[in-house]
Batch of 3 targets.
Target 1
Amino acid sequence: MENQKHDQPAERWKQFFPDAVMETARVEKDLNYHGAHFGIRALEYVVFMGTLITLGLFGAAIYQIAEPGTGFYFFIALLFLAGTVVLHRTVHKRLIDALGTGLALVGTVSLIAALFSLDTFNDREVQGIILGVIVILVLVSRKNLLTILGVIASFWILNWLLESRDFSEDRFDTFRLVAMIFILLLGALVCLEGFIFSHYSRLVHFSNYLKHGVFLALCSYFVLDFDSWSWSRWTTFNSAKWLTLAMYVELLLFAVLLFVWQYRRLKREHLPLWIVVLLPLSLFLLGFFSVKIAFFLLAFLAFLFTRSLFGIITGALGLIYAVIHFYYELNWTLMQKSLVFIGLGVLYLGLFFLLNAKKMPHE
Amino acid sequence: MEKEKRLSRTELTAIANHSDLTPEQKARSYTEQIPIHGEEYRQFLKWILLVGGISLLGFGLVFFFAFNWRDMPASWKFTTVWVFLLGFLVPVFLPKSSQLTKNLLVTVASLLVGVLFAVFGQVYQTGAFTYQYIALWLALIAAWVLIMHFAPLWILFHLLACVGLYDYFDQYFAVYVYLFVVVALTVVWNEVKPAKAFPYWYLLTVLTPAIVFSTARTSATILGDSFLARFDWTEFAVFIFCEAALFGLALYKKWLIPVAHIALSLMVVMDAKLIAVYHDNLIIPAFATLLVLTVSIFFLIYLRNFWKNGKSKA
């Protein structure tokens, strides 16, 4: 189907850009590399998983036979990490990218083993070195899977690294701070997509991978429930609650920014302010009761606005999880939860009928 | 029509990278091609307000009655449950309801059957989350599932069936056999009734856990290090039969992802067997895996090249 769809691609592109001079062959080559062609994901999956299983078995077998020391681990780490960089920078094939990512993962694990076996670094120093290596690897490679996995790994390493510094008496306070920084990053990547496209179009794919990596890292944070708070119990208000409240305010500001941006874009299409700004904002206010719901709802709407299928599906699944999780939230009584849901349900059904009754200018 | 004409993000990026478009032209083309359009947004809002409104109201009322459950007389309790179910089912018969709305309403009603059991019956608090509860739930929604023929509703049904089977047998053998049978029946159904065929994503959703569970269970029984899993030749034969049947089916239907799943599954089971045979010595399994992986990748590349002009499913 994909092939049939692009039978006459050049003519189709010309319809959109009649005056542009295009290097059609290079455009097609780019599409062949980045496009979701028949079977490519199945092959990537086998190569990546197969690489991990095979290298894992070889690593374990060598350990059984020789019980190698620090030098061996360093050698393997250097070989695999350098191999990844060489493969990712010189060969632009999806299967080689998957192979390189598998090598990078095993190389990183070997580096961790090497650093720990030296007995000269403490946990925090090892975490710092690994974080640095991953960031360099992502920036140099800029490939799909490696970037996504690298960003997720960086998020968690950064969390453990900062937590071990004991900034605060409350556990996971630093996690909240890191999550807020990543939310800022995600918001920036979504809002600046158009700017990156027009001014730095060669970085569009990399910024997309970064966006998906940051989003998945935050998904893991919220799904693993590091954001739980006791917002309704004011008597024991502590820094964790302040930080979670700050996170909600941050999300709220992004929501306002996103919806106003959409209003400015869509007002030419005669969509009134209340539909584009007030309505999604009212929907978003549900997030006051659970910052998890707020995050997934905002992500879902942001990806919907920018038509990113991966984000829409993941955001929707996350939202379902967050609503189910809210049932088990002990800081709100069933009565409070029920009144919130009934109130919002009535509001939305009312708005639905209002929206149906109101004809748009072009109708 | 307008939606079909739009360029994908990948196409637009490739053109932007290899043409003489100015930053202003790129910005304009991005705004025209990528973000959601006004009419699409309006349609989406109508849909989300309807679904969101009904769901929030439904769950709000469930929470409300659950909170006051102890204080309500028995007749009220009985009436409440019926009001909920009828509230979701009656709109299905309204002539103006679209098929999607009907499907969604029945799916929410099917979900509510179990939720009502759990919340009002307080099953979860008494620790009685057993197969009887699931079986009753399944029996009550079975007719709706068959009549509506809606893929997400079928997935809910299979999910419940798997939980019930696991709860009853206390192991995954029955679960994965059930899932493989579902895959086989789905394929037969798609052949007999192509107009009402199940989508490919539905098959993958059923097939992937079938392969994961069967691989994990078979590897565990072969390695023999789990007190839950003892190796059994009959079970092993069933596993091989299921994988072989699925492999044949995937080749016939030109499905690459199931072939990839099976390749990895057989590799893992082979590793388990070799590790058991060579008494935890890993060097031979490592070389065997390398060999099998290489062959699998070349086989998959061959299949991909052979099929790619004639089939769209991956």
Target 2
Amino acid sequence: MAWWDELSLGIKVTKDAAAIAIDPSPGAPFFTVAGGYVRLTGLLGYCTVAPALANNCQFTLEPDAVGGAITVLSLVLDINGQTEGDLLTITGDPGVAMVGGHVARQQMMAANPAGVILSPGVIGFIATAVQGTYRWILWYKPIDDVATVTVI
Amino acid sequence: MAWWDDLDLGIKVDRPAEAFAIVGTPGDPYFTIAGGVVLLTGLIGIITEAPGGAQTLSFELSPTVVAGADVVLCTPTNIVAATLGDVITISGAPGDALINTHLASNLMMEDAPNGVALAPGILGLVATAAVGTARWVLWYKPADTGATVVVA
């Protein structure tokens, strides 16, 4: 890990715009955490095609460790109502719903500015409908020296 | 984006002192966000001439995307008590009022230390009276490569 990986929100990982697909728990694989533990410092979705109907969405982590439990990174949010240019994020508190609405402004990790600790595994996106297209930006800082997050 | 743009609060943008004008929603254009999403990490106003009377201020974002909705960055505050050298700012929570009383010190983005994500658009100042003058300092970090904020 380079010293500059600790600057600001850390290392940025982008996921190109893709239509949301129906995926139950643990969700569509979006990002892989590998090599050790990381701190998730930001997770932002940018709507490029508006959902037109209800679509209940949620982020999860499915750990690599045998016996690991799938855990949620947020509670469910119906993203219907967002339009192109609107932003979607999480607060960092797993007991709070993902934050959306028809808004182009969002607080970043308001409940957990130091980041959410994640073990190696897969960050998944649960969705109940084929509604909406989003691109994503994730920021992280390695806790273990060789830990990484990559887009799937 | 240079690596040093990620240091501290990021890139600083200064808006020279200017008298407040009466402008309703979405406000007098103060800053332009272009080229992608940014993280707003600080926004302060420094009073250069006391309003001397009622003056209610708030900030809004008017997104560039046609379907976007104007959204508030804070709720309105009457800065009637502010005098020369006093400081205005926002907490980062859109439900909180603009922060200002007769104070020359203020907390910086106490509710959004990781910043507030903003889509491209115009940051405007809504003001209810043509009294008072302030200069402004804004800090941001590009979330998308190439995203900028400039004085409008």
Target 3
Amino acid sequence: MSTTQAAAAVASTRRPQPRTAAVGQRKHRPWLTYTLLTFLAIAWLFPLVYAVMQSFRDYAYTSKFGYVSLGGWTLDNYTEAWDRGNFARGFVNSMIITVPAVLLSLFLASCFAFVLSRYSFKLNLTLLALFTAANLLPPQALLVPVFRMYLALPVPEWLSPTGNLLNTHLGLILVNVAFQTGFCTFVLSNYMKTLPREMYEAAEVDGAGTARQFFQLTLPLVRPALAALAVLEVTWIYNEFFWATVLLQDGTKFPITSSINNLRGQFFTDINLVAAGSVIIAIPTLIVFFVLRKQFVSGLTLGSTKG
Amino acid sequence: MAAAAPAPTTASPPTSGGEARRRRPRKVSDLSKLKARDKIVVGLFLGVPLLFVLTLVVFPAIASVILSFTSWNGIGGLATIEWIGTKNYSDIFTIYPPFWPAVQNNLLMLVFLFTIPTVLGVYLAVLLDKELRFTWFYQTAFFMPVVLSLALVGFIWQLIYSRDQGLINGLLGTTIDWYGDPKVNFWAVLVATGWRHTGYIMLIYLAGLKGVDPALREAALVDGCTERQTFFKVVLPVMRPINIIVLVITVIESLRAFDIVWVINKGRNGLELIAALVTQNVVGEASRIGFGSALATIMLIISTVFVIIYLRAVMRDEPGGAR
């Protein structure tokens, strides 16, 4: 605080000097910043706005007048894209994969982060490093062994008709959990380290064991971090493309994001359908973004603020 | 889209509070002093997540390296595996046509993402860090593409790139197949990827800038630095950890880029990328396990280097785990 005041005081005494005059001058030209930002923001919004616009236009109209035109408004693209793209099933599949994967990742990461932040032991930092690294490896580099393991692992008939983990939602959930637990652990352990240690000591005096400390003290206190991570993880797992593409073979099992593979082939002659399909696929993440924007952003930046 | 990395705030100069905290005797509990029941709980809390990461990340990574020295078509048991030394690698470097184009594309993506979207993202963050009106609108515009998957980004840009119905050809009267013509299609992919990458970098950097002590900047301005000098000589050096993170994210994103080219044409005909080649060799009809693993190992080695750099940046002031 005193530094700021001192700085302000110095600034006022120096104002007549030419060097600070330049600072003053720049402040009178914010329009340049605004023009630049507005131009870029419009350019960045354009592909999405364009997609929304074309998604409401009739194919016959646009093929006659071209896409650089207006008119021919309709809602038909949505109903057609929805039916032909089998979006209802895709959304259900996405839910079946995303919800358990997010819950399990958050729970396992909370447990792991709790131990890392609460107790000191030799491998503490090594484990944190291992988990953080696991999230950053390119998944393609792990594809061969994961693929073969899934093929070789026997699972009961009722889970998968082929008797292995390939082509099952369970397999996809497990691999997503393995990848996302690392990131969540990193964020949560940083968050948990800010909790007052005295709280645990008091709990211990009262005879609370490790499990009770975790469920009754830590978990309620890290709720804001969990909320932020949940928002982020829902988006990421919903958007996950690679594992779903390679581990699922049956078209009826694909979640929305990896079903884009098939949609491209089906819709390629009709760009208006591509537009409607894009909007349908984007809506869930855009809703999450607009409604829970604060959580989304803080989830990305949480990992950091150590205190 | 693949997972992202967390963005730590910048190292602010050590405050007196931080030092006091470090000098305080460590009150962290020792594991060995726990009761038997609590030890079981701790064991489960550590063991189950560890089991996931070990079986589905660590073990596969090691297995990829081992398999890369073998020849195996994936049919028949593990007993049919033949050890062939480094033949897979020499084949990749000499007689596998798509490898060098893929390396070139991965490098091109890296250079491109660095020179344009990353720099632009940082610049936008610096602009938006000031007190501006409509900042919500600007941030939303740049950040919106980040919540979309790269696969969807590839799909949406089809509206602009399509040969017969695309916007560019509609405006210019040309008939270029922007996603199909190997002369231009990778550039088309780069633009779409950059559209998404810019907002991501902007957000991470903006968070970092918010952590910079404003007094530092004011002091520099008072000392007669121009705004540009202040940024390059004061803010940028303080932001070192964030800079490293941005660097690593950009490298890793360009190394594991996959979704967008796979959606377009499964990574062929001008859109070769190492990640797509690995996938083609493993899940396609010709399942060449050893060969695909060698490609995977190359990816693994490159990424490990940067993962280590990253870990050193984010864990720089961890005093041995729990404080």
